[in-house]
Every structure is written in C-alpha cells, then in structure tokens.
C-alpha cells in the first residue's frame, strides 16, 4: 500500500525550506519579472511605432489605431514646422485628428459592434489624411497606371 505523499512531517519540512529559500530567491525573481516586463513593453511599443514612455497613454481595444493616430499627428507637426506652405493643411488635419482622438476615446465604452464600426470609420479617415499628406509631399501612394 502506498504512503500518502504529504504528511505533517513533510509539510513542516517544506515550510522550513521555503522560509530559508524565499528570502534568497525573491529578489532575483522580482528582478527577472521586471526585466521581462520591460522587454515586453519595448516589443509592444516597437510594434505600435511609438516610444516606450508613450505606451502608458495608450490602452484598450483600439490601441494600434490610437498609436497610428498619435504618430500621424506627430508627423504632421514636423511637416508644419519644416514647411510653412503646408501650414493650412496641417492646421485642418490637426483639428480633424483631435476629433478622431475624441471619437476613439468615446468608442472605448461602446458595445463591440458599434466600437468596431467607429474604429473602421476612424481608420478610413486616417487613410484619407495620410493619402493627402503623401500627395502634398509628392509621394503619391497610388501605383502608376500600366
């Protein structure tokens, strides 16, 4: 007949070992967990095309879309600073991007079907702004006719 594996003596022995080992192992485990979290954040930020410090401002289901919106706004501001002839376009696009950011925040609380529709509409609007942006830079993204 097999003996039970966990006996009161075995339990006391396990607790004694844990009391000795835990203070030694815990700092290393915490450091490893922190390192893993930092690496995961760096990978996520790289995928989204943003800096790691901006990652905390983006959350929710529309994170990638919100990152795209933020990145486009930053790029438009760079264009406005370098080329004054595009100032009117940058001002209009910046106003539109602010409206889209508000729509993204509002979509977070919507039911899933409405949220997906809102995200599709925001993505389509971003496509339009990006296309105009590239056209103004002379980098039309449409392929040449054959």
What is the compact description of this entry?
The protein has 146 residues and is mostly helical. 74% of the residues lie in helices and 0% in strands. Helix 2 (63-82) packs antiparallel against helix 3 (87-107) and helix 2 (63-82) runs parallel beside helix 4.
Overview of the structural elements:
- With 146 residues, this protein is mostly helical.
- It has four helices and no strands.
- The longest helix is centred in the N-terminal third of the chain and has 41 residues, at 8-48.
Question: How is this fold's topology laid out?
Answer:
Layout (H helix, E strand, L loop, with lengths): L7 H41 L14 H20 L4 H21 L4 H26 L9
Helix pairs in contact: 2-3, 2-4, 3-4
